[in-house]
Amino acid sequence: ITELTVPGTRFPLEMARDADAGSNSLLTYQLATNPSFSLILDENPGGKKQPELVLEKALDREKQSSFELVLMAVDGGEPARSGTVQVRINVTDANDNQPVFSKKVYEARAEENLPAGSLVLQVVATDADAGSNGRVFYSFGNVPDGVRRLFTVDSDSGEVRSVGPLDFEEKNKYIFGLEARDGGGLTSHCEVQIDVTDVNDNAPDITILSLSSPVPEDAPAGTVVALLKVRDRDSGENGQVSCELSGEAPLSIVASSGGSYKHRVTVVARDRGRPALWSSRELVLEVSDVNDTAPVFEEAAYSAYVAENNAAGALVLRVQARDADAGANGRVSY
């Protein structure tokens, strides 16, 4: 009997036979008490009573899959004689149960850059039906194409695995639906939430916002000559950056055209990840001259002998002074 059979449905049973004659062969039937079934006797044209089993209550195979009943036939003789037969009722399955997920929401954490094919989580749905009605298949619900490019779900096991590399900096949380469908077409749904955790895979980025060049050579200590912006796309300690000047002598002097000078300095930005990532940027500062040096003669004193009656304009001696400043500041006149 299928479990969807409507209460009140009748099932004719085999009639008993009695070899006696007359009242000794008149039969009546009795059914052992069972709340799900009852017995009625339907008299046929020959006057014999046909036993019929009547379903009293709706069946549920998942609660009780079979019934054992005892049918007794009693004749009309004195003393009465009886015979019994066992009636076994098997309740056949109907697809009246949909799959049920073990959770409404499944949560998982996955590191970014997870290798393709890695297991992220597994969903489980059960179906109380039997056979193909109870076999569950898993699939994506109505999800964006971006989810399908990054994740896949095994239709038989419910395993959700990564397809492509995750990127925390691009997106750090994915929420999508999964569907469980049984062999009879009934479905149920659950939600999957995957948090992508950060990996220190981005080095700091240094941007020069402003650079004051040239810098006068007499600029006081503490003068701001450059403004930098340092950014690390990672989060937490992976994105916390400290800056320093590299080398024991962070400033190096390089001569440039026009008699001026340039200073080179290297800024190093390092994050706090493990292992730490770093990047560097070189700044070139041109130093402008200030007239802070007086001319200096090559000799402290000059002496010369001059003959009398010398001609006007004759060379007596040559003096020379030098000035360490650049450009006009270093040109000397006498």
Automatic annotation (TrEMBL):
The protein's matches in InterPro entries, at most eight in alphabetical order, are given as: Cadherin-like_dom (IPR002126), Cadherin-like_sf (IPR015919), Cadherin_CS (IPR020894), Protocadherin/Cadherin-CA (IPR050174)
Which cell locations does it reside in? Answer: Cell membrane
- Domain of life here? Eukaryota
One Pfam family it belongs to: Cadherin
Q: How does it sit in the membrane?
A: Single-pass type I membrane protein
Q: What's one GO MF term for it? A: calcium ion binding
Keywords of this protein's UniProt record, alphabetized?
Calcium, Cell adhesion, Cell membrane, Glycoprotein, Membrane, Repeat, Signal, Transmembrane, Transmembrane helix
Question: What residue stretches are annotated with the Cadherin domain?
Answer: 1-101, 102-206, 207-297, 298-334
GO-annotated biological processes: homophilic cell adhesion via plasma membrane adhesion molecules
Against SMART domains, the record matches this protein to: CA
| Any one GO cellular component localisation term in the record | plasma membrane
Q: What is this protein called?
A: PCDGF protein
**Species, as recorded:** Ploceus nigricollis
Q: What is the lineage of its organism?
A: Eukaryota, Metazoa, Chordata, Craniata, Vertebrata
